[in-house]
Prior knowledge:
Strand content: under 5%
Shape: elongated
Number of domains: 1
Structural class: mainly alpha
Helix content: over 70%
Number of helices: 9
Distance between the termini: 58 Å
Low-confidence stretches: none
Number of strands: 0
Mean pLDDT: 90
Order of helices and strands: HHHHHHHHH
Amino acid sequence: MNYNKIAGQNIQRIDAISDGVFAVAMTLLVLDIKVPIADAIRTEAELAEAFFALMPKFLVYFLSFMTVGIFWTGQSTQSKYIERSNRKLNWITLLFLLFVSLLPFSTAFLSEHITFKFAVGIYWLNILLLGVTLYINWRYAYKNNFVTIADDQKESVDSAISKRIIIAQTLYAAGAMFCFISPYLSIGIIIAIQINYAFGIISNRKEKK
């Protein structure tokens, strides 16, 4: 029997390593925030000044924690419907996890150089690669009938998952472009986009109308 035909079929193992990588990435994010050195602090004012100097790092930490949470939710949503796998889908998922594991680096890079447009661009590239691989993961699974969805819901589920990724990535790209005005403005817009997607603010308002 051909090895390629039997490799990568255990979907439970894929889910397990995915959760592990996401958990480690979330934990590593906070390690970039260093507690002010005690020997360098002499007064309450100096301690307060050192703490508030960390605000850009807290801002980027919040940004990245939201990023990890949103992509974990996105992958979890796909996993709910993907019940079969093969070697190619297995490696597409691993490629996606590679970009998840890069988030602590791109986060540290951005927090260290937060006033530079290039740093925002590197972070946005990380988000883009996450979105592209997550989209490819779904398209491959869907087209190869690895998903289990009721026939009357198949098209709507496919459309909902695909459109969410495409629209989100378009908004992220637009948000990143604001770095040419101000990196802080760009980060603020991306965070606003993430909060909307995390809590469905706009979609909830549409449903109420």
